[in-house]
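Lest this sound abstract, we think one record worth quoting, the chain in one-letter code, the fold tokenised, each line plainly labelled:

>
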Amino acid sequence: MTRNPAPSGLVVVDKPGGLTSHGVVSRMRRFAGTRRVGHAGTLDPMATGVLIVGVERATRLLGHLALTEKEYVATIRLGRTTVTDDAEGEVTASAAPDAVAAVSRQALDAGIAALTGPIQQVPSKVSAIKIDGVRSYTRVREGEEFELPARPVTVHSFTVQDVRPGEGVLDLDVTVVCSSGTYIRALARDLGAGLGVGGHLTALRRTRVGPYDLSGAHTLDELAESFAVLPLEDAAAAAFPRWDVDAAQAQLLSHGVRVAAPALAPGPNAVFAPDGRLLALVEPHQGQARILAGFPPG
């Protein structure tokens, strides 16, 4: 089926399990009729849920959207450790069943509290982080021994919704709200390690990226039938503080000239021309608007 190229905008995709984020982008390119498609914030093949996809000029929003707060629902299995910190990897250690059964709610709550707030987190080795230009997961597959440095992340909330004892394991259904760059697999690993029984992730669903959540998400089957985007201007207005400028300011900004902007919010701000068109993303810098990304008419 041939379609006219889609207009610039965002699509909130409900990614299915078993498909990479790049695989989603490949399908979206076919649906949109353009190769100018990208995504914000990679989801592992095992994970499902919100994946933000940008089409045409909206791809310029993606790097800034990737830095926003995220929310997940997940299942953590205590009692077993895997090489990948999730259910897709080989089990490398199993705790004694009585040790798992002895994990008290008090100990569990203390372990979660230790992983909440600003923390230093060592990412999973099967992450896409590059070391000297080579992906960490590639080094793992090649059998290389290495260590990843800890990075600062913030876990805004880490809440246990249910505790389900199993045969030699303890399954926790949790909700996590966190900063960009936080690995939920690493939270599972570190929680299990802190409790002395090991742990890994068995299910992960991202329910929100910034202002975009599952209520506005579409499955790939739905998009194959009826493809539509959230228009560029609406997407930017939903995600960033809005700054409406006059015609003179719009003219200067459209030519890359910084203008006075003493009252901008910290971080990216979406700038709109008098006709409602998105002009740029800017950030405050010494009383001026520094341009992060421009959106010339396309």
